[in-house]
Amino acid sequence: MNDFHLYFGYFDVVIFLILVVLNIVIRKFPNSSSCIFPIIFSILFGFLLPSVSMFIEIKLHSQPGDDAFNMLYTYLRFPLYWIFGFLQFIIIYLRTKD
């Protein structure tokens, strides 16, 4: 269970549960040919969500006397969100494909 909390914080679990529920509830995503959706999606999963997750994790678990290497694992949030964003993008692509 400690390994689970190494990779996933409370914010991450909430975001992934929201994604799972949205994927179950929304059977068919609207087909959009504009480029605004991929741009927003890339910003969201590429930078915004991992940054928020990293800052929340640092606020929850940092101590005043810690050095910077104790929280170095928080940078693993970025590849984790990139992987889940890519998987979500594939799910949306397959559901909008006719």
Give me a quick take on this structure.
This protein has 98 residues and is an all-alpha fold. Helix content is 69%, strand content 0%.
Structure characterization notes:
There is one protein chain. The model has no long low-confidence stretch (mean pLDDT 80). Helix content is 69%, strand content 0%. It is elongated, with a radius of gyration of 16 Å. The relative contact order is 0.17. Helix 3 runs antiparallel to helix 4. It is mainly alpha-helical. The N and C termini lie far apart (41 Å).
The N- and C-terminal alpha carbons lie at a distance of: 41 Å
Q: State mean pLDDT (0 to 100 scale).
A: 80
Let me know the number of strands: 0
Low-confidence stretches: none
Oligomer: single chain
Estimated radius of gyration:
16 Å
Features:
single chain, mainly alpha, 4 helices
Task: Draw up the topology in text.
Layout: H1 2-7, H2 10-25, H3 36-61, H4 77-96
